[in-house]
Amino acid sequence: MDSYKSLAYLNNIQKRYDTVYVIWLDEANDTHIEAKQNLNNIVQHTSIFTNADECITHISSLNEIAKVFLILSKYYAQIIIELERGGLSTFLSDDKIAGIFHDENRLFLKLTHDVARSSGNHPSSIPMIIMNSQEESRQNYLKVLELEQSRLSVSPTIIRHSIKVMSKQCGTYTWHQFLLTILLRMKNSDDAKMNMLNEYRLCYNDDIFEQRKIDDFDENYDLTKAVWWYTRDSFLYRELNKALRTEKIEQLFMFRYFISDLHTQLVQLHSDYVALLEEYDRDVIMVYRGQTITSDEFQKLEQNIGRFISMNTFISTTTDRNVAIIYAGDGSQSPDLESVLLEITIDIHIRTKPFANIREYSYFHDEDEILFSIGTLF
């Protein structure tokens, strides 16, 4: 259908709904240029996003009576499928989402169908990608997305802090735990591995040393070497922790292959480590972590003594207090940073997140490092 001929249909839709919004989520601004211009000419409220976080924030900010028609590019869909399967149904359950479409032509078909139905004519021959969220179940959304093989990522507001202070009603922590659970449960595949490597081959295109490490990972990596690779100074450690700190879903999804492997190896090592501690009648261990944090984070810790804290990343600690002090550095050299030494008491019988002494499996064999899995709460 010619996009311009849809103006009458959109006008009728707007009579049925107080406000109609068309939102296009695409990984690039230079694709479907003509179609995007057509939408801007036809629909009063048209927004185009290249960032999933900004897109979801925008949708959340709309009035409750708004009806959103969301167009997705192919880059984004696999992530939302996995998130929804894992229980994060808030996005597809949002009553404001009137339809999710693979391209603009399907949007106009949907609008045509809505107008015809409201006037008493039901063109059953017109294919619809997704009906109104009040009429179609979440599972139908997923089925259609799977058939379309599109790729979408959604996430909450980006958080760039390494430490979270927990309160009794911390929705961000709960959401993050859901996300991590889904990533850890996702089935690994060679495609996931190659997606990750291809992405960072491009990122480090001009760095011959990192290119060699990427090739090494491609040729020699297996699950038993996950800890070794995490502790090695390479693209993997830097980019994974960057993704974990910012909680950007696209980047976390890119690392799903390795996150799952590293957690799995820690689960395996945890059983042996706890058995060893029990053999020596050790019910509690003390570990230390030295790091620099921002002044704002430090103030939050001071103001919330007695509450729990959670770190977004896999957490490296040591049994040697002096080593931790070295890693704490000298925050006095910068007015925006503070050096902190965290003393963490661990009851080995409380088994929520795995942890283990990784000395024998680390790239650095001379450190008694205790590594905690992602999302550990203290």
UniProtKB/TrEMBL annotation:
UniProt superkingdom: Eukaryota
Molecular function as annotated in GO: NAD+-protein-arginine ADP-ribosyltransferase activity; nucleotidyltransferase activity
Keyword entries, A-Z: Glycosyltransferase, NAD, NADP, Nucleotidyltransferase, Transferase
Catalytic activity: L-arginyl-[protein] + NAD(+) = N(omega)-(ADP-D-ribosyl)-L-arginyl-[protein] + nicotinamide + H(+)
UniProt feature coiled coil, ranges: none
This protein's record includes keyword Glycosyltransferase: yes
Stored Pfam families: ART
EC number: 2.4.2.31
Entry's family note: Belongs to the Arg-specific ADP-ribosyltransferase family.
The protein's name in its UniProt record: NAD(P)(+)--arginine ADP-ribosyltransferase
Organism expressing this protein natively: Didymodactylos carnosus
